[in-house]
């Protein structure tokens, strides 16, 4: 085990709706291994990183578990669908590179959802630039996807934000955190989506772009005929008065990626670098 000063974070909705679920999933894993992390051999380590996947089909879980590169270098949570709400047909999977110390991991099942949505919470240890050990919380989620699900999305994001702000003084809650990350498919379909993020004290890791389309992650590769949008986000939170967690160099991945003529996903993924300043 080691305590990294920085790590790579990837979030990607890999689309459970389309056909060829296992083939597309395997193609996505190969792309992550060889193109994103430049690990040409299964023995090549990606270094400290977290891969957050959404919409993983139940029958695709075996493909992740049996992938040799994943088996060698990652801890997977959960390992099957029994932890998903109602053992649902698809859900979130978090992969933590094995050199990273994991304090805790569990699943939050949203109380307000019509789509069996949930979040995976993993607490890891990182080292700040000043040499202090920090407990950082990584939350992988997919918020409600219905066009009229704005209130559900707001409530779900609020529950995640609360998990980043819990303190020792609150009963029956996890210990105080040094901050953390919420990443995944936020289904940011609402006109006030950015304002909702700010209202919970969260910071969008993508800086304002001159061309908003540069941040779009959905609407280009199949899927329903809706407007192009930045549905996927990496959000971070640092306790008041602190400047600890920072996400930098965020960019899109998986653009134009196909398997045998089929889109691997209707979403682009996101990749960024997480660091702890103090």
UniProtKB/TrEMBL annotation:
GO terms for cellular component: cytoplasm; nucleus. Its cofactor is Mg(2+); Mn(2+). One of its GO terms (molecular function) is nuclease activity. Keywords: DNA damage, DNA repair, Hydrolase, Magnesium, Metal-binding, Nuclease, Nucleus. It is found in: Nucleus. It comes from the Eukaryota. InterPro entries: Endo/exonu/phosph_ase_sf, TDP2-like. The keyword Nucleotidyltransferase does not apply. One of its GO terms (biological process) is double-strand break repair. PANTHER family: TRAF AND TNF RECEPTOR-ASSOCIATED PROTEIN (PTHR15822), TYROSYL-DNA PHOSPHODIESTERASE 2 (PTHR15822:SF4). This is Endonuclease/exonuclease/phosphatase domain-containing protein. It comes from Guyanagaster necrorhizus.
